[in-house]
Amino acid sequence: MTDDDFSTTVYYDDDADESYLQSKTVAVLGYGSQGHAHALNLHESGFDVVVGLRESSDSWPVAEEDGLDVATPREAAAQADVVSILVPDTVQPAVFEEIEPALDEGDTVQFAHGFNVHYNQIRPPEDVDVTLVAPKSPGHIVRRNYERDEGTPGLLAVYQDATGEAAQEALAYAKGIGCTRAGVIETTFAEETETDLFGEQAVLCGGVTSLVKQGFETMVDAGYSPEMAYFEVLNELKLIVDLMYEDGLGGMWHSVSYTAEYGGLTRGDRVVDEDVRENMEEILEEVQNGEFAREWILENQAGRPKFDQLVQAEEDHEIEAVGEDLRALFSWSEDDESDEQESEP
Ligand code: NAD
Ligand code: MG
Ligand code: MG
Ligand code: MG
Ligand code: MG
């Protein structure tokens, strides 16, 4: 099972035995990004699926039209052997409270992100398996790849193994949604949660948007036009990221001019310098010691006042208005991708 090129265990189709899930019923709670993809892929892989939704949910008729059985989360959990919790992380503790009485000994509670278990917001009973199968992609990609006979890389973890079959069953589930076609990496709830939070805060979502805004403001404050600044630091970012995604940093350096390469190699570390590195270490520490989790849980309990304020400030940034106007002018670009995403339930 171990691929010698990796420091960790990677599982593929041949490692997974569907019989561990064959005679069982899977309740997929939630029919959003991950929920619809898991439910449909499992259903088409031949597994018995019931979707769990609130009676008021707009997704209820959608899931039924997609050919799936739908019940309330409590009823779905009562019918199921495996309960896959794919509602938003912030509502999972309340949903878990609702379904906990419907869990039988030997059932499985499964997640696609470890936050609530890792930070003790959900404490499953000792007689159930607790697992994680997390595709490393938004749900619409998980679904699209499956339909094209392609796979989506994923993560697998076992938090609690009451039956002795937790890992095998999770692997069968991962195969059912198409992840073992591409490779499933074994991890832990702690590692998945902490790396996911750090990545999105420091680099992917937080770091990149701050870098873009600082670059934009530096140019606009120096008198350059906002349109030029937008193209230079936001629009072109996609082209650079695509090159790195396809062929690594070297592929990107190879594709840009020697001037860009020399300028980037000499100036990059001056922008993202050792202070930034120290800030990153601090942010990682807040993830590891639970400080970030505590802050976010309290923020939700208070009705998200700070969150709403930050979202508003981001919407009001000049780069957003400039970008909206410019993107309207080149609406031919990337239309397919965004349409597809918006059409998902
Ligand atoms: P989502 O916001 O897209 O979907 C949530 C679904 O839950 C919706 O169908 C909504 O109607 C339903 N729902 C909301 N509140 C509910 C309630 N009280 N009771 C019952 N149903 C309710 O969520 P998502 O992004 O698919 O996230 C689900 C899980 O997958 C999370 O743990 C998330 O961290 C994880 N995950 C997401 C991604 C991603 O790219 N979206 C990737 C990997 C893992
Ligand atoms: Mg049951
Ligand atoms: Mg992630
Ligand atoms: Mg995340
Ligand atoms: Mg340039």
UniProtKB/TrEMBL annotation:
Q: Which InterPro entries match?
A: 6-PGluconate_DH-like_C_sf, KARI, KARI_C, KARI_N, KARI_prok, NAD(P)-bd_dom_sf
Residue numbers binding NADP(+): Y31, G32, S33, Q34, R54, S57, S59, G139
Q: Does the keyword rRNA processing apply?
A: no
How the cofactor is bound: the record states: Binds 2 magnesium ions per subunit.
Q: Which Gene Ontology terms cover its molecular function?
A: ketol-acid reductoisomerase activity; magnesium ion binding
Q: Which domain of life is it from?
A: Archaea
Q: Where does Mg(2+) 2 bind?
A: D196, E232, E236
Q: Spell out the reaction equation it catalyses.
A: (2R)-2,3-dihydroxy-3-methylbutanoate + NADP(+) = (2S)-2-acetolactate + NADPH + H(+); (2R)-2,3-dihydroxy-3-methylbutanoate + NAD(+) = (2S)-2-acetolactate + NADH + H(+); (2R,3R)-2,3-dihydroxy-3-methylpentanoate + NADP(+) = (S)-2-ethyl-2-hydroxy-3-oxobutanoate + NADPH + H(+)
Composition bias, Acidic residues: 333-345
What does the UniProt keyword field contain? Amino-acid biosynthesis, Branched-chain amino acid biosynthesis, Magnesium, Metal-binding, NADP, Oxidoreductase
KARI C-terminal knotted domain ranges (all copies): 188-333
What Pfam families does the record point to? KARI_C, KARI_N
Indicate whether Oxidoreductase appears among the record's keywords.
yes
Task: Tell me which residues this entry annotates as catalytic.
Answer: H113
Residue numbers binding substrate: S257
EC code: 1.1.1.86
Q: In which pathway does it act?
A: Amino-acid biosynthesis; L-valine biosynthesis; L-valine from pyruvate: step 2/4; Amino-acid biosynthesis; L-isoleucine biosynthesis; L-isoleucine from 2-oxobutanoate: step 2/4
Task: Give a GO biological-process term.
Answer: L-valine biosynthetic process
Q: Return the NCBIfam families for the record.
A: ilvC, PRK05479.1, PRK13403.1
Tell me the protein family, please: Belongs to the ketol-acid reductoisomerase family.
UniProt xrefs under PANTHER family: KETOL-ACID REDUCTOISOMERASE, MITOCHONDRIAL (PTHR21371)
Q: Which HAMAP family match?
A: IlvC (MF_00435)
The protein here is known as Ketol-acid reductoisomerase (NADP(+))
Q: Which organism is it from?
A: Halorubellus litoreus
